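FIELD: query
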Amino acid sequence: MDLDFVQKLIEFVSRSPIAELEIERDGVRIRMSRHTAPAQSASQTQPSPQPGPAAGIAVSSNPALTAPPIARHSIRAPLTGVFYRSGTEGEPPLASVGDVVMEGQKVGVLEAMKTFNAVESDRPGRIVQIAFDDHAAVQSGDVLFVLEDLG
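FIELD: result
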């Protein structure tokens, strides 16, 4: 994986609404995530005394450290073009966040050279993120949807 490709990934994550991206290419895996710290008020800056754990017991307040990882999958743009969330103008989106989609289900449309191409889910799952707005220009390989496994 070359440095130009990694820089393009960083630019993609920074300009898109996705919070996390994981990619594996040529045996190298890269995971990028964007975390924003919540704003603290003046009353929150001083920690309040709390009883601590007994000596020798490790306690984690971060549920991400104790919960099993959630399996996620990206549906990517098969070609460069304009992304549409609905099949035709004026219709509701083909898929929205929270929707359960099946393998082969049409979830969007890409227009390239005046030809409309269906974007289909390549596995079943629940849509947890849509990376681009309607009528957005996308590049081949861009993440369009993020699915969470149904398991």
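FIELD: remark
DSSP finds two helices and ten strands in the chain.
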